[in-house]
Specification:
4-stranded antiparallel beta sheet, about 25% strand, Rossmann fold, alpha/beta, globular, 6 helices, about 30% helix, disordered C terminus, single chain
Length: about 220
Amino acid sequence: MLKIDKLSASIAGNTVLRGITAEFRAGELLAVVGRNGAGKTTLLRAIMGLLPVSSGSVSMEGTEITRVAGHRRTALGIGYAPEDRVMFPTLTVEENLRLPCEVLQLPAAEVDRRLARVLEVVPQLKEMLGRSGAALSGGQGKMAALGRALMVGTKLVLLDEPFQGLAPVLAVQYAESLRRLHQIAPELCIVVTESNRSLLRDLPDATLTLERGELVVAPEPAGTH
């Protein structure tokens, strides 16, 4: 589905990603783990076109998108939930969810259909729909950001550090939503970054490990021998 080939990127003159090559496949729930500063957020931002790349390429279903503007990548079916959530405080939660689809000028019936699916995946959002984006707790904001990413992420969803800072109850609910999503949309590729591997529990089908901007072979879990 999405292929990354020898991707490098720098921020303020400092190289953050160093020749990343990876493939995200349809139907896969993939974890990208690594310490803070390893390059996880930069990788997702590079995929979304939110920062320029130094070299290498990103292709979606065989089409090169490295030079495609970031706002146009959403139209390819890619949803993104940044670590800091970024809810518009003057809009309700429902308006925040619908906004990306309205920017893409999708028909109203399609937007309604997508919202219904999001509420099936994340039922906790139902009672939040009428609230202001400013009235959400940090954990509720992460649930809303997941829902917003799903409104446009029909093929690929990128979730940056979604479990960081979540209360245990919300972390369980978030994991349940991802499992439910995997069942409802088995063709969807879900990519989750995380600094603390243990927070992911048994969610991922596969794990990539980033260290200092490079992919390394993940160690086998203890007890596999």
